[in-house]
Amino acid sequence: MARFQIKPFEPEAVVFDTASGDTHFLAPLTLELFQIVQSNPGLTADEMEAALASRLSLGISPHLSQLTEDALASLRRIGLLEAA
Amino acid sequence: MKLLQLSPSDLRQQLAGEGVWLRTGPFSLRVRSRLPHVAEGLTDLYGQFEVRNSRQAFADFHVELNPPSTLRRWFRPQVDFSFDGTLPFKPLPLDQAYPMLEWGLNWCVSMHAHHYLIIHAAVVEKNGLAAILPAPPGSGKSTLTAGLVLSGWRLLSDELTLIDRKTGLLHALPRPVSLKNQSIDVIRAFDPEAFINRASHDTAKGTVAHMRPPRDSVLRQHEPARPGWVIFPKWEADADTQLTPHSKALTFMFLAQNAFNYSHLGADGFRVGTALIEKTECYDFKYSKLHEAVAAFDRLAASNQTALS
Q: Range of A40's domain?
C-alpha cells in the first residue's frame, strides 16, 4: 500500500498518511507541489518551483518563489515532505 | 411488543428487576433502574420502541442507572450510570438521571460500534436522501433537527451519524431529540403538539429536555438512507436564510475531526469518509427563522426529487 492516500476534491485535496495515521488538507498550490514531489522525487527547491510554474503556466517570480517556499514549509511541517 | 403497551407499574417493576430490553435502531439495550425519573423518561419518550423479555433477548449494551452506594446519597442525591458493571462517568445530581441515560447511550454507541464510521452530527431524510448536519454546540443544530422532523423529515439521529462501512448508507438511531436552553421554548412555539419531557436544570449543558421522536421515524428505524447533503447549520439573530456551497475537502476535514472513531478506523475511516463526501453536496446554512429554514430544506429535497424524476 502506498504511504499516502490522496483524495482530490477539486481544486483541493485531502491526504491520509498511513505511516502516521494523520489526515491533512491540501490547499490548491500545496496540492500541486505535493503531486510534483510525489511524481518527481529528488527535485531541488528551484526545480520544484520551475515545475510548479510550468504546471500552472506561470513565469518564475519572487511572489511564486515565496508561495513555493511557504508550501514546501507547510508540507515539511505536516510530515508529507522530509526536511532537506 | 411496544413499550407503551407495558403498564407503568410493569415498566417500573421490570426496570428495577431484570431490566427492560429495548431496540433502538441497529442496537439493543437492557436498561435497569430503580429511579422514577428513568421510568418516567422511558414512558414519555420511548413508547413506540420495541421491548422484549430481557431474560430471553440478547442485548448489545447493558446499562444501569441507580444511586451510588455511598452515604452521600442521603444528603445530596445522585445517580450513577453503569455500563456492563463499570462506571465510565462521575455521578450526576439525581435530577439529571434521564439525560444521563441518553448521554450514556450515546457514549455506548460511539465507543463500541466500530462497524460504522460515527460522526457527531444529526441526520434527517426526505424523499430518499439524507442531510447530515454537523455543527459545534450553539449552532442551532438540534433546534433545526427538531423543526425538520416536526415538518415531515424523517429523524435518523440528532447526535450520531452512523455510516455503514460496507455500503456507505446511513443507519437510523431515532432516539429522542436533545433540546437545550432557549431551543426548548423555540420548539414548543414552533409546534405546540410536540411532546417535550420534563426539563433537567443546571446540567453541564444548561437546561436540557428531550423531544419524543416522531412515530414514523421510529417505525422506519431499520431503513437506512442514502447520503445526499452535508450541511453546516448556523443560527444567527436576524440572518437571512442562506445556503452557500462549502469546500468538500474542508467538509471532510471537519467530519474527520468530529468523528468518534475516525482515528481508530485508520485508512478505512479515510476511505469511508471520502466516499461519503464524493456522493454529497456540501453547504453552509445560515438561518434565524425556523419556518424559513424548514422551507429551504424542503426546497432542497424537492429539487432532488425533480432531478430524480
A: 4-77
At A17-55, the pLDDT tens digits run: 999 999 999 999 999 999 999 898 888 888 989 999 998
Angle CA(B107)–CA(B112)–CA(B118) in degrees, nearest 5? 75
Closest chain A residue to the Cα of B282, Cα to Cα: A9
Burial class (CB in 10 A: 0-12, 13-18, 19+), A59: exposed
- Disruptive mutation site among B252, B261, B271 for chain A (greatest number of A CBs within 10 Å): B252
Largest CA distance in chain A: 38
Minimal Cα–Cα distance from A52 to chain B, Å? 22
Spans in chain B with pLDDT lower than 70: 70-75, 305-309
pLDDT of res. B55: 78
Q: Cβ contact (<8 Å) for B253 and A7?
A: no
Question: At A13, which CATH number?
Answer: 1.10.10
Give a yes or no: residue A73 inside a domain.
Answer: yes
What does the pLDDT read at residue B297? 97
- What secondary structure letter does DSSP report for B151? T
Average pLDDT, chain A: 91
If phi over 0 gives left and psi between -120 and 50 gives alpha, with beta otherwise, what is residue A26? Answer: beta
Residues of B in Cβ contact (< 8 Å) with A18: 266-267
Q: Which residues of A touch B (CB under 8 A)?
A: 1, 5, 7, 9, 12-14, 16, 18, 21, 23, 25-26
Q: CB contacts < 8 Å between A and B, how many?
A: 39
